[in-house]
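Following up on my earlier thread - several people asked me to post the actual chain instead of describing it. Fair enough. Here it is, all 454 residues.
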Amino acid sequence: MHLHILGICGTFMGGIALLARALGHRVTGSDANVYPPMSTQLEAAGIELMEGYDPAHLEPAPDIVVVGNAMKRGIPAVEAMLDRDLRYCSGPEWLRGNLLSDRWVLAVSGTHGKTTTASMLAWVLEDAGLDPGFLIGGVPRDFGLSARLGSEPFFVVEADEYDTAFFDKRSKFVHYRPRTLILNNLEFDHADIFEDLGQIQRQFHHLIRTVPGTGLIVHPAGSAAVDQVIAMGCWTPRETVGETGAWTAQLIEPDGSHFRILLNGEEVGVVQWAHTGQHNVSNAIATVVAARHAGVPIAASTDALSRFQGVKRRMELRGEVNGIRIFDDFAHHPTAIATTLEGLRHRVGQARILAVLEPRSNTMRLGVHNAELAASLRLADQIHVYAPKDLGWDATAVFAGFGDRAAVHDAIEAIVEDVAAASRAGDQILVMSNGSFGGIHDKLLSALRARHAG
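Reply from S.P.:
Thanks for posting it. Predicted structure:
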């Protein structure tokens, strides 16, 4: 079968392409931005890529067009697909119909931590010899790729609440029908498609309705937003994690790099790893519980987690110059920003942290979280915010309370110049964005090398 994928270079749709190719299908695809690393990964798999959305890309007609959720009416290829009455579906619909229907699906959902937790879970299953398939919205370092078929029955999927396609406004995760579900946390996000938290909760309720009575739902105890979703109706056994849950953590090191896991107050395992932050401790516990449901002993899970390498763009060390370290992190929501900074602060103690933020997500650009955004950066010693002229809100006003600690820039080059000039040995530069941020990481490294040469 010939699949043509519209929007193929996104992480999710690129993963769909790799899975379809592994199943033996011919795969081609179009995207407005065809560039590495996704383009090279796809081309290495024998997938033909086309720049733009020319209707000619659909000639001769493929057997099916798989439509990414970034596609909208008015895009030439979309209009041609509809005019010619070509068969089409969304990525999640294709995934369910062609791969997930025969698998034990372990889905990881929630506002924060999906990519990291899904990567942990896939790694634990892999280390246990179960050869899981997976589709993750990032690149786990333990695998080096974002998707693979694996062996039956287990398949780990990052379950996103964003909408499915222009013709299907349900959340993607409604298609996956998991047997094991992690619901990490729940906050308001995606303000471009949801009006309030209640709309998001309704989608999570729909997800919970698809989990069988022989399945398992893992969720935090004491979360009002999650409890409200559960109260809408739940027909599946649940395991709770967190301070008031059945599964809890006891920190041995305050930065979260060494901790005990307790079940009903009794120690059942210990994790010592290279990662930090209470959020990662919580992710790890949820992983252990979900893996246990799939038959992995707790001791095997904690041993695997102690060797978990992490995920690219999640507190990824991009380089070090003269004792100045530059980290890249995907954090783009006040809660994620705050927890990332908290973990780094515990690790580095009194060392200076220079936070560099690009408010890039649709929700950030709408200014929905402005009231919480400044507070989320309080642990940073210096704050540099990229505010291009089309940002849509006054970043200077939002960060005014920090005084000289905060600087707002409308050009990436100005950030690079200021940060490089201010940096000194021992500083930790934390760059946060859900995009490429104009290659600022490499630009900072180059500027630091030039400044400290000789």
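The chain has three domains: 2-91, 99-305, 316-452. That should answer part of your original question.
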